[in-house]
Specification:
This protein is of the alpha/beta class. It has ten helices and twelve strands. Helix 7 links the parallel strand 7 and strand 8. Helix 6 packs parallel to helix 7 and helix 6 packs parallel to helix 10.
Length: about 290
């Protein structure tokens, strides 16, 4: 496997890594993600087994990562990395230790990580394909409506994967789901889900209708039904909508959805959105298993 040594901040490969770890629009432009930590990298590699073999690891004219690349802060780090992870990468980039510290996203880094193409595990469709390409629609869906906190987003992805959800769609304005903090919080959940980002509210509603999904949104309103009411259609495929930490689900989505409330002690106004999502998703899983 070829090794490329990178010692300057002006190196094009280092500038690319800085862009990818920055997140948001900058990262999205490169269609790549930064994975740091043995467990997360191993989850990625396991999810890719049986797919295409590593290629050249080259960067296209658009600075797009085509194959996974191993990034290390010293050659001695190779002895710390699982053989399967090393073998899955098309190339190794050896960064000066100070440069690696600039891209690392954790307080105590192991000194290595992977930069990977998002296309290898993002299996959703774009908004322009909604209505022209029928999605698989084989299970429950989570819709994230303008969530801002990466920890919340990652935790919801983890609960979604653990409870059997098959797809996650994010409305425009939601935190970048492939940002390093979201990836770490999700702990490999990305690789078990079909993820579509940057959908408009209308596109998400149309796509849910196309898949025959009932829309359910958490909200404290007079019209809300208890999560534990038998009349909620949890036995069939549903799309759960979880809204922004401060404002909740948008009015536009609420008018299209059955509102649901989680019964709780009046001493607390509401649950954190990630906690609420976990309660709803695992109650959905419980109901399905009773059928």
């Amino acid at each position: 496997m070829p090794t490329k040594s990178i010692e300057s901040r002006h190196n094009a490969a280092f500038k690319l890594l800085k862009d990818i770890t920055a997140g948001g629009r900058v990262r999205r432009a490169h269609h790549a993600a930064w994975l740091e930590g043995s467990r997360l990298c191993r989850s990625y590699v396991e999810a890719q087994q049986g797919r295409s073999n590593p290629g050249s690891g080259a960067i296209s004219d658009q600075a797009e990562i085509r194959e996974p690349i191993l990034v290390i802060s010293s050659e001695s780090r190779l002895d710390m990395i699982d053989h399967e992870i090393v073998a899955a990468c098309a190339a190794t980039w050896l960064l000066d230790a100070k440069l690696f510290a600039e891209i690392s996203q954790v307080e105590t880094s192991a000194g290595w990580g992977m930069v990977v193409p998002v296309s290898a595990f993002a299996q959703g469709v774009t908004e322009t394909q909604v209505g022209t390409k029928k999605s698989a629609g084989q299970g429950d869906v989570v819709i994230l409506d303008r969530l801002q906190d990466p920890g919340n987003a990652g935790s919801i992805l983890r609960s979604a994967a653990a409870s059997g959800v098959t797809e996650v769609w994010s409305i425009t304005g939601t935190v970048d789901l492939y940002a390093p903090k979201v990836l770490r919080a999700a702990m490999g959940a990305h690789f078990a889900l079909r993820i579509t980002e940057l959908l408009s509210t209308e596109a998400a509603v149309l796509r849910a209708a196309d898949q025959g999904l009932s829309l359910l949104a958490t909200a404290n309103s007079q019209a809300a039904v208890s999560l534990y009411e038998n009349r909620l259609p949890l036995e069939s495929a549903v799309a759960w909508v979880f809204g922004q930490e401060g404002d909740g689900v948008s009015a536009e989505l609420l008018t299209r959805s059955q509102t649901v409330v989680i019964p709780q002690s009046p001493r607390v106004e509401s649950l954190n959105v990630a906690a609420a999502a976990s309660v709803c998703l695992f109650e959905t899983l419980r109901r399905k298993r009773l059928v």
